[in-house]
Specification:
The complex is a heterodimer of chains A (about 425) and B (about 110).
Chain A (H helix, E strand, L loop, with lengths): L5 H17 L6 H7 L1 E6 L5 H11 L3 E6 L4 E3 L4 H5 L9 E3 L1 H5 L4 E3 L3 E5 L4 E4 L4 E3 L2 E4 L3 E3 L11 H4 L9 H11 L5 E6 L9 H16 L4 E6 L7 H11 L4 E4 L1 H4 L2 E5 L4 E4 L3 E3 L2 E4 L3 E3 L1 H5 L11 E2 L4 E2 L5 E3 L13 H20 L8 E10 L2 E12 L2 E9 L6 H23 L1
Parallel strand pairs in A: 1-2, 1-9, 2-5, 9-21, 11-12, 11-17, 12-13
Antiparallel strand pairs in A: 3-4, 6-7, 7-8, 10-18, 14-15, 15-16, 19-20, 22-23, 23-24
Chain B lengths: L2 H12 L5 H21 L19 H13 L5 H8 L3 H13 L8
Helix pairs in contact in B: 2-5, 3-4, 3-5
Classes of the chains: A alpha/beta (about 425), B mainly alpha (about 110).
């Protein structure tokens, strides 16, 4: 395999030759900028930030710009631990300074308002626009405010989904902490597919942990749009062991589906009956993030189809997508999956723009869930591309019969994972 | 890797690229770096005593033995069993060399 064309080697040699004259290689940026291919990454979460970093690591012949409106990224993963009193909110926030200083990524604090795939430009909300040779769109999810009658953006303040990394997580915690002992916390769990399949049930576990210590007469009611869920047997067992008599889970067939909510009275109407909550967290159906849908990158399902070997959109050439927004075959919508897809995407873009080799795509996912402080379980799999789709090769799920020590070790592993994972993305 | 250092390293390498042996070695390095991306999602640093051990500077023979033990089931870990099953013997050797030299002078960065 030829990795370097004669032109590319000549270019490199020329660039190196300039360095001593200019004092530093970095000072010859103006010269290099003309030769460097431009990659713009929209979205600085687990997917987008990882693509940017891994491209920068693999090649310094790319001019990489990361567009992200927030000063830092607050992870959705582990935010349930904040609800449960096991984590501070600050510990979930990660900035972009290292991506800029160590990897030379240009971080633009703005949001993408539109994409022109013909002219290959991203228009920013602030008025600027950025030209690209390749674009990566990593917008995560958007909450659907048209799916449950009564549940619009205004209503979500009273019945927080707290599912998009935004400020609702603090509001939900405030509501839970100010609830009277003996009140009912209702969690409405969404239909598939959605971000973080075990997340709603980990949230139940962590709220239960808080109630057990502070409001022992409180109850938790789960109204589910599904008849089964991720790690179901493990969660049901844990709720019975750690929080006996506190948690009740009602499947879709039992309640007949959620028909509407009333944010003023905090009631949730199902086909079977109307449930009254003291505090409610309603997690509605979701779609790909707004910019992906505005730019026509999503299909009629609301999610974005991609070539799994390169993560390039099957709808628009030159635009790649990673993370929760994509249709990823057997992979779940998780931060871990987004990070894994990002590494495949990064090597595909570097290969396309520099002629570097690309290797057979490998994907991996692991999702830890906390059932209690020292009781965690995991689910995951390795994946490869088979018949044009991402298919699971070897999958695993924590056993029902695991020892207390195994579970405590999984909880320690999850904590170490979080640190390593944040470093892999942002460090 | 700093942009400046890597640019100089790349430029230095450019002269060697005419040699097929050097190209093959670089191919192995790049492949190892790609495969190590999967490891980096959970393993950080050099501390071998953590619940998920750091791999930086890990002895290559110990690394190979551990992955084979996970693959055979001699060492128990559902996660690492799935990782080990996804790697060929050649890939395990590439990764062992990658982590053994990681962060050391002349080794992977």
């Amino acid at each position: 395999m030829t990795h370097w064309s004669r032109r590319k080697v000549a270019l490199l040699t020329a660039a190196a030759g300039l360095a001593p004259l200019a004092g530093t290689a970095l000072r010859s940026t103006a010269t290099l900028a003309q030769a460097r291919a431009r990659v713009v990454v929209v979205g600085g979460g687990a997917g987008g930030a990882t693509v940017a970093k891994y491209m920068a690591r693999a090649s310094d012949r790319l001019a990489i710009t990361l567009v992200e409106p927030a000063a830092g990224y607050r992870t959705c993963f582990f935010s349930n631990l904040y609800l449960g009193g096991l984590r501070s909110l600050d510990s979930l926030v990660h900035g972009y300074d290292t991506l800029a200083s160590k990897y030379g990524i240009t971080v633009v604090r703005d949001s993408a308002a539109g994409i022109d795939p013909q002219r290959r430009r991203v228009h920013l909300a602030g008025g600027d626009s950025l030209a690209y040779d390749r674009l990566v769109v990593a917008p995560g999810i958007a909450i659907r405010y048209d799916a449950i009658p009564g549940y619009d953006a205004a209503a979500s303040g009273a019945m927080p989904h707290a599912w998009d990394g935004g400020p609702q997580i603090t509001e939900l915690k405030r509501q839970i902490e100010s609830m009277d002992d003996g009140g009912v916390f209702v969690l409405a769990a969404p239909p598939n597919p959605y971000r973080c399949p075990p997340g709603p049930y980990e949230r139940v576990s962590m709220v239960a942990r808080y109630f057990k210590a502070h409001k022992p007469k409180a109850k938790i009611l789960v109204l589910d749009a599904k008849n089964s869920f991720s790690k179901q047997a493990l969660f049901l067992d844990a709720w019975a062991r750690h929080y006996p008599g506190m948690v009740e889970w009602l499947p879709a067939d039992f309640i007949g589906g959620i028909e509407s909510v009333d944010a003023k009275t905090l009631s949730i109407k199902t086909a079977a009956e109307t449930f009254q909550a003291a505090v409610a967290s309603v997690i509605p159906p979701q779609t790909a993030g707004r910019i992906a849908r505005n730019a026509d990158l999503a299909d009629e399902s609301g999610w974005c189809p991609v070539d799994p070997s390169t993560l390039e959109s099957t709808r628009y050439a030159g635009i790649h997508l990673v993370g929760d927004a994509i249709i990823a075959g057997a992979m779940p919508k998780s931060g871990f999956a987004a990070n894994s897809q990002a590494k495949v995407c990064a090597q595909a873009i570097v290969a396309a723009l520099t002629g570097a080799p690309a290797f057979e795509p490998r994907f991996f996912n692991t999702c830890w869930s906390f059932l209690a402080e020292h009781d965690a379980v995991s689910v995951g799999a390795s994946y490869r591309v088979e018949d044009g789709k991402i298919a699971a090769v070897d999958s695993f799920l924590s056993g029902f019969e695991e020892s207390t020590e195994t579970r405590a070790n999984a909880a320690r592993q999850a904590e170490v994972w979080y640190r390593a994972f944040a470093e892999d993305i942002f460090g | 890797m700093g942009a400046r250092r890597s640019m100089l390293a790349l430029a230095a390498r450019a002269a060697l690229l005419l040699g097929a042996g050097a190209a093959a070695a670089q191919d192995g390095d790049q492949r190892a770096a790609y495969l190590a991306g999967t490891c980096a999602a959970c393993h950080a640093g050099a501390n071998a005593a953590q619940a998920i051990p750091g791999l930086r500077g890990r002895d290559s023979e110990a690394f190979v033995a551990a992955i084979h033990d996970y693959r055979s089931g001699q060492r128990k870990s559902q996660i690492m069993a799935a990782v080990a099953a996804s790697l060929s013997d050649e890939e395990i050797a590439l990764l062992a060399r990658y982590f053994a030299t990681l962060g050391k002078a002349g080794g992977a960065q």
